[in-house]
Amino acid sequence: MNSIGKKLGLQIKLIRVSAGVKQKDLARTMKLPAPLLSMYETGTREPPLEFLERFAKRFKISISRIFFLIESTKRRPLWSEEDIREAKKEALKTKKLLGW
Questions:
Q1: Which of 34, 76, 84, 99 has a CB 3.0–4.6 Å from the CB of 27, allowing a cystine?
Q2: Residue 70 pLDDT > 50, yes or no?
Q3: In sequence order, what DSSP letters do the residues of 36-96 get, joined into one string?
Q4: Total of domains in the chain
Q5: d(CA 13, CA 96)
Q6: What CATH number should be reported for the domain holding residue 20?
């Protein structure tokens, strides 16, 4: 798995844990197998855009929030510009494959 997948997985887990939500409870709420959610969090598999949209909605955050690490009141980008460009390319490929 590339570094983007690992960073994204870390953010997903960080947001979930910060909200005090157990992995199995989130998986049930989002109607996905717990092992799949675990793969997203560990970076073994990259989550599709649809998952990110549902995840953001569940935690009442914007999708862009998933891509930033928040430390107290200071906001620091977790991704480099190159990572962001690569993620956008992958998202466009996924949209085309799904016919969106």
A1: 34
A2: no
A3: HHHHHHHTSSPPPHHHHHHHHHHTT--HHHHTEEEETTEEEESS-HHHHHHHHHHHHHHHH
A4: 1
A5: 28
A6: 1.10.260.40
